[in-house]
Amino acid sequence: MDAEVKQSKGRKITSRLAYSFGAFGHDAFYATLSTYFIMFVTSHLFDKSSGAQGTKMIAYITMIIAVLRFVELAIDPLIGNAIDNTNSRWGHFKPWIVIGGTIGSVVLALLFTSLGGLNTSNPILYLIVFAILYITMDIFYSFKDVGFWSMIPAISFDSAEREKTATYARVGSNIGQNIVGVVVMPIVLMFSTKANSGQGDNRGWMAFGIIIAAVALISAFAVAIGTKENDSELRKNTEKTTFKEVFKVLARNDQLMWLSLTYGIYTAGMAITNSLELYYFTYILGDASKFTLLGSLNAIIGVFAVLAFPPLVKKFSRRKVFFLAISVMVIALAMFAFAGQSLPMILTAAVLFYIPQPLIFLVVLMVLSDSVEYGQLKFGHRDESLTLSVRPLLDKLGGAISNGVVGLTAVWAGMTAGATAGDVTSHGQAIFKLMMLGVPAVMILTGAFIFFKKVKLDEKMHAQIVDELEKTWSKHLETDETPAEIETNSEVTIYHSPVAGKLISLDEVADKTFASGSMGKGFAIQPTDGRVLAPFDGEVVATFPTRHAIGLRSDQGILTLIHIGIGTVNMRGTGFVQYVEEGDHVKQGEELIEFWQPAIKKAGLDDTVMVVITNKEMPEFEYLKDMGNLVQDNENVLKLSNAKLSD
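User: That's the sequence. What structure does it adopt?
Assistant: C-alpha cells below.
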C-alpha cells in the first residue's frame, strides 16, 4: 500500500514538473514571438545597404503581421472546437500540444532567417512566403496554446491537485516569459560574427530563434510524456463554440463587455511599452547587452508579484489593487520619460512598470471568472467556456495592435536597417518616446477610467450573486437521474442531524428565502459544534467556492441543501474547511465541512444552519424531534417517505 501511495505521489510530482516545464517553454516561445521577433525584423533582417527598399519592406512585414494576427482571432474559436472534438488514444489535448509545438517551433526558426536571401533577391515572393509561414506558425501556436491551458482540468479532478498544478505552471510561465529577456542578447552576441555596436547580427538572431524554438519543442514533448489525461463523462463536450457566440456573450453580459473593453485597451498599451523596451536599451541607452539586467530583475520580481496578490487582495480589495497597480505603471512611464541614458533610472522605471502587470492580470482574471456567475444569474445560462475564451482573444488583439505600432514606430524613428544609437536623431527619439510612453499612458488610463465607471463586479457583488445562485442550486438536477431510476430497497429515508445544536423551525430563521419555504421544507439548527456530517448515504452533487454550503442526493433520491449561516457567503471561505468534492459518495455520519463559529461571530453574522429538502416532488415529512430540543449530530430528526417521489 505504501508503495502504491509513493508511486501515486511520484506521478503527481512528475506531472506538475512536466506541466511547469511546458509552461516555461510555451511562454518563452510567446515572449520571443510577441516582443523580440519584431526587433529582428526591424533591425536585422535588412542592412543599411537596402536603404529605402529595406524600410519599405519592414513596413510591409509589420503590416502583414498585424493583419494576420487579426485574421487569426477569427480562427481561434474553430481551433477550440477542433480540440474539443478530438478523440485519440492520447487524449484531446496532447496531440495538438505536440503537433502545434512541432510545426510552430520549426516555422519560428525559419522566420528568424532571410529565407535564403529571398528578402532582397525577390521581395514580393518573400512577402508571400512570409505571410504563409507566419499564419501557419500562429495557427499552430494557437492549437498548442488552447490545448495546453485547457489541459489542467483533464490532468486531475481533484481541486487541490489542480491548484498545485496551476501554481507550478504560473511559476514556470513567469520564468519562461522573462528568461528570454535575460538570454536574448548574450545568445545573439555569442553567435554573431559582428558585434555591430552591441546589437549583434542576423546570424546571432537566427541562433537565438533556433534555441528558443528547440526549447519550446522539447517542452511540448515533456508535457506529452510526463502528464496523463484522465477521461470522464464529465469531460464530454456537447456544445460547439463559434466566433459569433463569443460576441453574443459579450453583447448580453454588460460586466464582461466593459471588462473586455478595459482589458483590450490596457493590454495593447502595456504590450507596446514592453515591446519597445529593448529598442530603448539599443537606440537610446546605446547598450543592448544591459537589457539582460532588466530580464533578470523581472524574472525574480514576477514570482513575488504573483505571490503577493492574495494577501494584497485580502488586505485591500481587487479594485484598490487594480488602481494602485495602474498608478504605479503611470509613475513608471513618467520616470521613463526623464530617464535618458541613466541606467539605474531606466531599470527602476522598467521594473516599476512590470511589477503591477501580474497583479492587473490576476484582477482581470478573477473578475472575468466572476462574470460567469453574473451572466448565469442574469440570463439563466452558464457560458463558462465562451466567457473564459475572451481573455486570450484580447491578449492576441493587444499583441496584434502592438506589433503594428512597434514596426511603424521603428520606421518613423529611424531605428531600422542596422542603425545605431548615434544614427537616431533627436526628432526620432521624440517620436519613439511618444509611441513608447505617451500613447500607452493614454491607453492605460483610458482602460482604468472605463473600469472605474463601468465595472461594478467586485467581491461583495459576486458573493451576493453566488448566494442567489446557491438558492437555485437543485434546478439543474431536474433532468438528472431520478429516484425511479435508482435501485433502492427502501421507501423511507431516515434523515440524521448534520449538526449538533438546538432544533428550530425553518420559518423562524432570519433569511427570508429559507423562511418562506421557497427553497423547500426542512428545519434549522443553532449549532453548538462546528462539524457538518452527512445526514444519509448519498452523493455530493453540489459544492460552492465559499465552502459554506453543500448539496447532497441520497441513495433513495432525496435532494438536500445544508447551508451554514446567514450572509456567510461574504466570508469567501474564511473559517470553512471542506473535506469532500462534488461527485464523491459519502456515508451517513461522514464529515463534510468544518466551520469555525468564532469567525462567523467576528464577522457579525448569524451562524444558524439551514437544512432543506429541495426535490421538485416533495416527500412526506415526519419530524422525529420537537422544535426547541437539543440534538446531537447523527441523531435521527426526520423520516421521509419516498412514495411521492416521481420523475
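DSSP finds 20 helices and 14 strands in the chain.
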